[in-house]
Write a structure and sequence with these properties.
The chain is of the alpha/beta class and 430 residues long. The chain folds into 2 domains: 242 residues, Rossmann fold (3-Layer(aba) Sandwich); 179 residues, Rossmann fold. It has 20 helices and 12 strands. Strands 2-1-3-4-5-6 form a 6-stranded parallel sheet, with helices on both faces. A 4-stranded parallel sheet has the order 9-8-7-10. Strands 11-12 form a two-stranded parallel sheet. Helix 7 runs parallel beside helix 8 and helix 12 crosses helix 18. The radius of gyration is 22 Å and the shape is globular. The chain starts with a strand and ends with a helix. About 7% of the residues have low confidence.
């Protein structure tokens, strides 16, 4: 099967679960014999390598922003200057700042992108469609969009290429709901209007499928749930009794991901002398100038715990396996939970027990895995109670480790995810 995977590049500068999913599923589908062409938009897929889709990046982030925000200026700019904005050097530089991009102020551009052939980026859309039709090799069997913010591409892709278009669903609400309410409403409305242009959606959890079915007014039968998977061979096994005892956080180091709540729980834990040796380790990318992370460092210093903390933003990109290997447990208390939470099954694969509040897809993952510890709520004091109990219970930790390892081998792996995905694509192509 020939599959075109259209992915918004992040430049590899932050822990993006959607990006990990897209590249992992691409690798797994190729390993199973499918021909997958990855087409990046906006930025390179990693900070240093954009050698995908013949080295091209469509909707160049810098050029698209300039053309949208300053259309009159763009019309009089020399063509050579506009082309320079699309060079790898400029995009790699832009990628360094991509983790600081804020949704607020970008609603107009987002809505314009969702309008597709009716938006200001219509010429970019035609370039993409023409390239896929004329220069990308044989006609694809199916086209997959990484998320709902790309729905504006679907109508023209279907009209010109005449193949099914599928769209993944994962955490779109994080971006859209960060906008002011009136702007957020505009984006949700635009996505609702364009949802009819795709043949089907794939959600990473039943919980998120239900949420997006309501938000987009899409009938539940048009959404297939395919749980995420990881490569078990990519992780080394943690020692259940390793010293020093370390609690880990693997996600964006931001308020919206619950990092401040995690730090507060760590400080509360140290009020109990039984846990005087317990360390904190966190990675996942820093937004903006790192002001929020600096604030958390100050809280740790004020509590006299800075020497017991390690916050290394770049480990998520360079060596997540080593990061997970040194943990005794992982906890990422995202307010309201997530569409999935890839770090949960990454930890299970590495033999690290997971503690999460009963929100989002966490309970769904735990039920399928047959392991995972649910704390009473997202409150720091409830996190502390669950952390303390598991830190003191070696037998329970070993039980969680075995069950998590078995769950990844049995179900939460890339081979199963790729088989289900390819099978769904074949259904759509009949």
């Amino acid at each position: 099967m020939r599959i075109v995977q259209i992915i918004p590049g992040s430049g590899g500068t932050f822990y993006c679960q959607n990006c990990l999913r897209d590249m992992d599923i691409t690798t797994a589908l190729r390993a199973q014999g499918h021909d997958v062409l990855v087409v990046p938009l906006y930025l390179p897929l990693t900070a240093g390598d954009a050698n995908v889709a013949d080295g091209r990046i469509f909707y160049s982030a810098v050029g698209t922003y300039v053309k949208h925000q300053y259309p009159r200026l763009a019309r009089i700019m020399p063509g050579a200057f506009l082309r320079m904005l699309e060079t790898q050097a400029v995009l790699r530089m832009a990628a360094k700042f991509s983790s600081s991009t804020r949704a607020a102020g970008l609603a107009d551009l987002t809505v314009s992108m969702l309008r597709g052939e009716e938006g200001r980026q219509a010429d970019e859309l035609e370039n993409l469609v023409a390239w896929l039709r004329d220069d990308a090799g044989s006609r694809p069997d199916v086209i997959c969009l990484s998320n709902c913010l790309l729905l504006g591409l679907a109508r023209r892709l279907k009209a010109v290429l005449g193949v099914p278009v599928v769209c993944w669903l994962q955490d779109e609400h994080v971006w859209v709901d960060a906008m002011p309410p009136d702007e957020s409403a505009q984006v949700w409305q635009a996505m609702h209007e364009r949802a009819a242009d795709v043949d089907a959606f794939i959600s990473v959890s039943h919980a998120y499928a239900k949420r997006m079915s309501a938000k987009l007014a899409v009938p539940p039968e048009r959404i297939r749930t395919i749980h995420m998977g990881v490569d078990p061979k990519a992780y080394r096994q943690a020692d259940p009794d390793r010293k020093p005892r370390t609690i880990g956080f693997l996600s964006r180091l931001a308020e919206g991901e619950g990092f401040g709540r995690f730090v507060e729980a760590f400080i509360l834990l140290h009020r109990d002398p039984r846990f005087a040796d317990v360390r904190l380790s966190a990675t996942g990318g820093v937004a903006g100038r790192g002001t929020y992370v600096k604030k958390q460092w100050k809280r740790l210093r004020d509590a006299g715990l800075a020497d017991l903390a390690e916050i290394e933003p770049n480990l998520f990109q360079t060596d997540r396996a080593s990061f997970l290997e040194k943990l005794m447990l992982l906890s990422v208390p995202v307010p309201g939970g997530e569409a999935f939470g890839t770090y949960v099954i990454e930890a299970m694969s590495a033999g690290v027990p997971v503690i999460e509040p009963p929100v989002g897809a966490y309970s769904e993952i735990f039920a399928q895995a047959g392991c995972g510890v649910s704390c009473a709520s997202e409150k720091p004091e409830d996190l502390v109670a669950a952390w303390a109990a598991l830190l003191e219970d070696s037998a329970k930790r070993k039980q969680e480790i075995k069950a998590g390892h078995d769950a990844v081998a049995r179900y939460f792996n890339l081979n199963r995810m790729a088989r289900e995905t390819a099978g769904f694509y074949r259904e759509l192509c009949k």
